[in-house]
Amino acid sequence: MEVFENLKANLVGKNARIVLPEGEEPRILQATKRLVKETEVVPVLLGNPEKIKIYLEIEGVMDGYEVIDPQHYPQFEEMVTTLVERRKGKMSEEGARKILLEDVNYFGVMLVHMGYVDGMVSGATHSTAATVRPALQIIKTRPNVSRTSGAFLMVRGTERYLFGDCAININPDAEALAEIAINSAITAKMFGIEPKIAMLSYSTKGSGFGESVDKVVEATKIAHDLRPDLEIDGELQFDAAFHPETAALKAPGSNVAGQATVFIFPGIEAGNIGYKIAERLGGFAAVGPVLQGLNKPVNDLSRGCNSDDVYKLTLITAAQAVHQ
What we know:
Elements: H1 2-10, E1 17-20, H2 26-38, E2 42-46, H3 49-58, E3 66-68, H4 76-87, H5 93-102, H6 104-113, E4 119-122, H7 128-139, E5 149-156, E6 159-164, H8 174-190, E7 196-200, H9 211-226, E8 231-236, H10 238-242, H11 244-250, E9 262-264, H12 268-280, E10 285-292, E11 298-300, H13 307-323
Parallel strand pairs: 1-2, 1-4, 2-3, 4-11, 6-9, 7-8, 7-9
Antiparallel strand pairs: 5-6, 5-10
Helix pairs in contact: 1-13, 2-13, 4-5, 5-6, 6-7, 8-9
InterPro entries: P_Ac_Bu_trans (IPR012147), P_AcTrfase (IPR004614), P_AcTrfase_dom1 (IPR042113), P_AcTrfase_dom2 (IPR042112), Phos_Acetyltrans/Butyryltrans (IPR050500), PTA_PTB (IPR002505)
Family: Belongs to the phosphate acetyltransferase and butyryltransferase family.
Protein name: Phosphate acetyltransferase
């Protein structure tokens, strides 16, 4: 896809280092091979160095990656101390040592937090909760950001759109929805998409009524007040947001209707259904979810992922690290 070629080009000379905690997993190793051969991203794998080295040497990969064995990490005690301090009384030294030795996601997130790597990709063999929980506890959200959200890059040929939040927040209130819109604009720009943000609803400019409509109207106002520089409009039905002729009838004068590139759904039900309809009926490739709002990037794979998914999400994570 052209979008990933652009990401690769933008990463030249950056030497972004991304930790992959499930370092012995075959899909991770195949993605590592491709990352080393095709990009300047440096994969940092957690696991048994001998096993990983043998596998990659057979695949013709001699260097360009790193392996860390959590059981024999020189800075382990420093990591334990830092984790205890970060958790502020919620974790003992013994508890920190135990979780760092037993849970590769905590170890990987600590590498990110301590600045040894720039981001993390996990989830090939772990649940979303197991991947995201340590990120929320340790890396935490950016200043003025109260929650993470999940956006999907939707690609079909040269068409590129961003859908959010389709993965994390079940029923965001108006303030949360505004925050999701603003963070989605940041993600869109990273992908080379000029954000024109449509706040979606079953109503367009007062054509319908209900609590959900009121929420979207209020979210649009909040987002405008926080970021007056962004092109954002709502409430808009999808046809008014996407189709110029419909926009001219339903939302004349809108600077977003009919030309939206970022679509913010009122809740996860609509978002999840919407991106899957676009994927299955519309022929779009859905890439993500891309987690938004963290101080440093951490992204979650599906346990049903393939090596191509790992490769792409690692590129995205590296791009987030550079973009921030």
